[in-house]
Amino acid sequence: QVCIIFSDFGKMQNVCSLLIEKLGASVTVSPPHFYHTPEAIDALRRQVCVAAVGNTRRKAQEVCRLFGQSLGKPLLIKEEETKEWVGHTDSHLSNSPAPLTLQERIQNATAYASCRVFAVFEIKGKENRRNKFL
């Protein structure tokens, strides 16, 4: 028995296909077992937090433009809540008596995260062009 750990799903499929093609019936390839390393989950958390801060800044810029202001530097950024979950939220997949397809297994093993941030930005007033020349 040989156990191989892949970090790339495409490479795993290619290696399994090659083994089956070259070795035929003498090899049995078991269904893959999916998992996430702590480092991968930590990287996901950071990506989600950075994306949340970016979204917050873009929304604040839009509001400032609406009022004729410009957005300044951030004064406070606080991560308020982070949620993580693995798999589908649909319960019909887990209640099915039939074995899961590969696609369903991938969906059940997919990691998700969300982050809510609170940010306070400096607001700068726009100068009138006439005042610059006076």
UniProtKB/TrEMBL annotation:
State where it is primarily located: cytoplasm
Keyword annotations of the record: Cytoplasm, Nucleus
Q: Which GO terms describe its biological process?
A: immune response; positive regulation of canonical NF-kappaB signal transduction
Which Gene3D superfamilies does the UniProt record give?
Answer: Protein of unknown function (DUF541), domain 1
> Where does it reside?
Cytoplasm; Nucleus
Could you name the domain of life of the organism this protein comes from?
Eukaryota
Into which family does the record put it?
Belongs to the IRAK1BP1 family.
Instruction: List the PANTHER family.
Output: INTERLEUKIN-1 RECEPTOR-ASSOCIATED KINASE 1-BINDING PROTEIN 1
* The protein, known as: IKBP1 protein
The UniProt gene name for this protein comes to: Irak1bp1
